[in-house]
Amino acid sequence: MCAQGADCYVLGSYGAGGLNLKELLKKGSILIVLGTGGVGKTTVAAALGLAAARSGLKTAVITVDPARRLRDALGLENLGGKPTGLGRQRLAAAGLDPSLKLSAMVLDAKGAWDGLVERFTTDPASRERILHNPFYRQLTEQFAGSEAYAALEQLYDLHSRGEFDLIVVDTPPAANAFEFLQAPAHLTRLLDSRMARWLFAPYLSAGRFAMRLASGAARFVVRELERFAGATVLSSISEFFTAAQQTIDGVVERFRKTEALLHSAAVNFVLVTTAEDERLRQARALIEEMRAERLNLSAIIVNRFLDEEIREHLTGSARAMPPSLEAIGGLRKSMGRNLDRHPGVDALVKYLEDYRERAYRDLARTARFSQRLPGGVGLTTAPELRGGVLGLAQLARFAGYLVGPRLRLARLKAVAAYEDAGAGL
Question: Which of 161, 288, 380, 397 has a CA positioned 20 to 30 A from the CA of residue 305?
Answer without folding.
Answer: 288
